[in-house]
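Aim 2, interim progress. The first record below pairs a target sequence with its structure tokens.
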Amino acid sequence: MNYRHLKGLIAAPFTPFNQDGSINVNNIPDYAKLLKKDGVSGAFVCGSSGEGLLMTTAERKTVLEAWVPFASEDFKLIAHIGSTSYETSRELAKHAEKLGVYAIGCMGPCYFQPKSAVELTKFCAKVASAAPSTPFYYYHIPNGSGVHVNMAEFLEEAEKVIPNLAGIKYTYSNLMEMFECLEYNNGKYDILHGHDELLICGLSLGAKAAIGTTFNFMAPVYTQLIEAFNNKEIEKARAIQKHANEIIKIMLNTGSAVSGGKAMMKLSGLDCGPCREPIYNLTDQQFEKLKADLKKAKFFELIGKDLPL
């Protein structure tokens, strides 16, 4: 199967939780409205930023169901269905296809990790076959999953046995390997850039779409970066990437992209609640420091919002 390649920014939304740790889908309508207003072209639901692997299968289904009413041609949903068990992933894949999502994404199992492209392909083939009419993306994030398999070799194996293979969500810093994937089989597969801080690099290699955590609250900034790059205003694009990276560094200095990102989402006007253990939540002191650091870095000016009290 040949699938149309995605374009633009796809947010990796945070999953809203209540203070008692239960799922809270009540603000997802406002969340979807915000992303659409910011020009985001889709959402990668229950991925790393969404704490998907810390949720039950039923909870992941509930969250996806809450996002489905907001899907459209201009706002595509990709359901992350990765798990250590291919049977769990198959269940989530069937559920996602029944809901009519645009695509499914699946990282490799983070325990008893496959060591070769052949082993990884066998796992993914079982998962993808549960939703044969839905485009399948492999989610390559070796620093999180521990699955260190060459992605060009994976494409070579997977295209033989996964007819609904659409491409890869590539979240790794090996840009040579990413370039190989972009060029593989005359650019047949859709390689989605996954490192916000390296977006300008991905664009230079030919990536047309990206999935990112900071697109939740800084999408217009990255849109300006893409426009500058496309207009061959490279110095301007570099300056925008530099400023974005200053913000990303502040987020990561909290110790976690999820805890820092959720706090920044709250500062941006949408409270997604606490994180699930073992991801920690910022103390009041850490939250105030984050706010001060972001103010110094002109984050609130960057996103066009007033500094919260």
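The second target in this work package is listed in the same format:
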Amino acid sequence: MRDPRDALVEASSLAQALDLDVIDALTVPVPRKRAGTLFGSGKVEEISEAIAAAEIGLVIIDGPLSPVQQRNLERVWKAKVLDRTGLILEIFGERAQSREGVLQVELAHLSYQKSRLVRSWTHLERQRGGFGFLGGPGETQIEADRRALDERIDRIKEALAKAVRTRGQHRAARKRTDYPVVALVGYTNAGKSTLFNRLTGAAVLAKDMLFATLDPTMRAVEISPNRTVILSDTVGFISDLPTQLVAAFRATLEEVLDADLILHVRDIAHPESAIQARGVTEILADLGLGTEAEARMIEVWNKADMLASEAAEALSAIAARTPRAVVISARTGQGMDALIAMIADELAEPVEEETLTIGFDQGRRRAWLFDHKLVKSEVQTEDGYRVAVRWSTRDRSRYLTL
């Protein structure tokens, strides 16, 4: 169970991510959920008075609301009400930049909206027609809206299918270049984009803000003289992620499924770091990455600079005894050399030496060997070049396909 105080801080941060002014925030014990209003009548009235006194126009419930509960609370409180799913959808809608991201957000939003259509038409009668086979005006309107939503959802799914095929082609192209892919995953605001920028020098939005990154970003990074990897920054995870969002962003997160190595970035200074880590693991399992992911995962304990010196020293001692764990601060650069060395070690392959004879007409192959820093020595002969190389099985396979 999460600490309600920490959950409240996270909910407030979600609101602030939309540039909303948080006037008040409180936890409300719910011993028994009421079907019509979630809370008991006394608590509903108490909150209503506070809303009226502060002239609040939007109330956010950090949890799921049924359409009926949302409608009833809005009616009593005379204010717009959003549940956790609706709030996260609003944030995603504001953050999405790529066409695929926009489509994924719209698909999730329409799926959410479809279940709440009844809210828009409660002023219309739902009585049966005189002959018993025609629906009332409200029912007709709801069905018409539902058909319109279904048609739009089908069009978005078709567009997304094309985007998924394109992304698959890009992944296939990367596999042909045979650069290993390293994916960053982690709870939202764990520091993935800051780490991405530190490793690549890219200008990716990195703020102390939930869901600062939504669309995936990829860059090639040289982690050693003869080792280049593709680094992928992904959308942040969050506990109680709405089901339709997991489904909608599955295509984006497929980058993680194909990754050769996964960096699980954790905000180690956060009081709920362990709970957040479990949430990330659960979502990875939902995507089809269970215990198999652990075999290719490094735990990156970030934000060490935010810990007291004694706590930081104790954490480093724990990391030293933990396989595939490293303590860093992406903001200050602390521990980056150790992280890069660990990535290189995890991706290292057995190498062997070989001597090749390359004809004068095979300049492309010779240039490829030099470009990839695989040449130990070279001697020109009457028939071409005798080249001594040091390479891995993967390098050899790539060379033979040229």
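The first strand starts at residue 58 and ends at 61. This observation will shape the mutagenesis plan for the next reporting period.
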